[in-house]
Predict the structure.
Amino acid sequence: MNLIVAVDKNWGIGRDNGLLAHLPGDMAYFKATTSGKTVVMGRKTLESMPGKRGLPNRTNYVLTSNPDFAAERCIVVNSEDELMKALSAFEPDDVFLIGGASIYNKYYKMCDKLYITKMDADLNADTRIVNIDEDGGFEVVSESEPMTENGVTYRFLVYERKK
Ligand SMILES: NC(=O)c1ccc[n+]([C@@H]2O[C@H](COP(=O)([O-])OP(=O)(O)OC[C@H]3O[C@@H](n4cnc5c(N)ncnc54)[C@H](OP(=O)(O)O)[C@@H]3O)[C@@H](O)[C@H]2O)c1
C-alpha cells in the first residue's frame, strides 16, 4: 500500500478542513500518481473536495461510521475490517491512502511507499500527521529539485519502508 500527502515544515496537512496551499504542480503530481488506482480517504477529506464526490479515473473508498452515507463515485465502508477486506482484492502497489490525518496516522505503518510533498514553510495547520523522519521506519529513496508556486517552495520525496 502507498500513501500520498503534502506536508508543511511541521508535518501539518490542513486547516479549516482544507489544504494549506494551492500548488498546481503538486496537484498534477497527485493526479499522475493516483490515476487508474484505488484511493482511500476519510469522510472529512471527501467533503473537502470539489463537489464532495470521488475523484475521476480512480476507485474511491471512503471511511465513515455513518451507515447511511453515500457520495457520487464512492464506495463507502464503515469499519477498518470492511476496508481491509475490500482492499485485499487489489494489488497493494495500486492502493493509495489520500488522507486525512486520521487515515494517515492510523495506517501509514502498513505502507511500503510514501509519496510526500514537503513544503518549506510553516502554513499554520490545524491538522498534522506523524513526523515520518522521526518515526525512523522509512528511508528517502528519491527527492526532486525544489520548485516554487504561490510563494511556497516544495519538493517531492519518496520514502520506502526500511527492509
Ligand atoms: N495535505 C494533504 O495532502 C491532505 C490530504 C488529504 C486531506 N488533507 C486535509 O486533512 C484534513 C482532514 O483530516 P481529518 O483527519 O480531520 O479527517 P479525515 O481523516 O479526512 O476524515 C475523518 C473521518 O473519517 C472517518 N473514519 C476514519 N477512520 C474511520 C474508521 N476506522 N471507521 C469508520 N470511519 C472512520 C470518520 O468519519 P465519520 O465522522 O463520518 O464517522 C472520521 O470523522 C483536511 O484539512 C484536509 O484538507 C490534507
